Amino acid sequence: MYISRIALDYFRSWHHVICDLKPGINVIYGNNGLGKTNIVESFEIVGTGSSHRTSSTLPLITRGFETATIRLNVCDDDLTEQTSYEVTLNLKGTNRARINSGKSLYMRDIVGLLPIVSFTPRDQSLIIGDPTVHRTFLDQAGTLLVPNYAQYMQEFKHIAKQRVALLKNIREYSYNNQSSSLSGLEIWTGKFIEIGILITQIRQNITDLLNQYFEPIVKNLTNNQECAELKYLPSFEEAVINKNSEDNSEIAKNIGKHFQRIYEGELARGCNLIGPHRDDISFMLDSMPAKDFASNGEAWTLSIAAKMALCKALEEKNNSKPIIILDDVFAQLDENRRKQILNFAKKQGQVFITTSSIRDIPEDDEIKNNNLINIEEIIAKQNSFESSNNIHDDILREIIAKRNYEKEGKL
Asked: Angle 36-48/131-145 helices, nearest 10 degrees?
């Protein structure tokens, strides 16, 4: 599949923009700060429900406005069908979505339908960053690979929030009768463990799947010089040790014992001390944690390989290639890695490359023959359109004012 057209209203720096796109490689180029990344970021939001740049809706909406809208037209590979996706981001309230102008949906109902994988300058933090970055990668992979994963995560966050509220309530009124709160805590802890086991087992399966592609890709990028592995580090270890068990009740019972031991600590701190929100993933290089030993170049290789592995897994799952975003990555790479990632891009379906200078992209005739999009020309068209609209509005206001005066008998 490929995105044939994008329209943005009040998204980031764009008040209004419409841009036609092509299958194959699309290069969006121009000076920094003009909104190249904002365009490809909108693709990522529709595909995964999240952005690699922010976890909040606030920065996504143009300052001074309450909502932003993203509209994408998507064609399938044989051009027999077109699907339109519309996402409305709200400053207040829930973000909503529509497919083919149909009924209003929750965002979680459409994430994963448009398989998109983004490569960005921040990807190096997959290796050197904290566990939050690693979990975000796992969750985006889960959203794209596993049906209902986004719903499971939303349910987990709701249960975790309710459990924290009860812990704080018990702590605040510890000298009063809190039997009802304690009973409620037991119920929410059971739900927390149940959904936590499910998410943990799904994440382990995702890691196992990505590892099928990750190590061969690293070997190819390094000419068989290095061995690499993704190692999942779950908070609920029992859930993966016994992941083939048909009955999770024994797993839940063992995890429940941990909660009994840490109850006083959770009460004192008012937070959930264990659970999927504490999970991590370690990038191993030659059986050693890459975070501690990898060079800058090796870190880039591992992060690129992880995203490539996700692309291969999506291709296998959907029997079609995902849409690829290469957001200003060429400026961050040496010449050898530039050529490697360009060769990878040329084998994909639709690819979006953003760059401040086309010279950062290795010389290639296939790139020159594809869709080159000058961001400055798009801005000029947008400004011309807005100026025309302003003139039209001024004329319309004058006509209305004149008619009002005439009705009042003042002319």
From this structure: 60
Token pair for residue 249?
């009740």
Instruction: Write the pLDDT tens digit of every residue in 324-379.
Output: 999 988 887 778 878 888 888 888 889 999 988 888 888 777 776 678 888 888 88
3-state secondary structure the chain: CEEEEEEEEEECCEEEEEEECCCEEEEEECCCCCCHHHHHHHHHHHHHCCCCCCCCCHHHECCCCCEEEEEEEEECCCCCCEEEEEEEEECCCCCEEEECCCCCEEHHHCCCCCCEEEECHHHHHHHHCCHHHHHHHHHHHHHHHCCCHHHHHHHHHHHHHHHHHHHHHHHHCCCCCCHHHHHHHHHHHHHHHHHHHHHHHHHHHHHHHHHHHHHHHHHHHCCCCCCEEEEEECCCHHHHHCCCCCCCHHHHHHHHHHHHHCHHHHHHHCCCCCCHHHCEEEEEECCEEHHHHCCHHHHHHHHHHHHHHHHHHHHHHHCCCCEEEEECCHHHCCHHHHHHHHHHHHCCCEEEEEECCHHHCCCCHHHHCCEEEEHHHHHHHHHHHHHHHHHHHHHHHHHHHHHHHHHCCCC
Q: Among all chains, which residue has been given the structure tokens 């529709």?
A: 46
Cα-Cα-Cα-Cα torsion 152, 306, 115, 93, nearest 10 degrees, comes to 50
Strand partners, 284: 229, 289
Q: How far is CA 359 from the centre of its chain?
A: 29
Closest CA to 182 of 291, 259, 296, 283: 259
Q: Both tokens of residue 91?
A: 């400053």
Per residue in 253-285, pLDDT (tens digit) is 999 999 999 999 999 999 999 999 999 999 998
Amino acid at 79: L
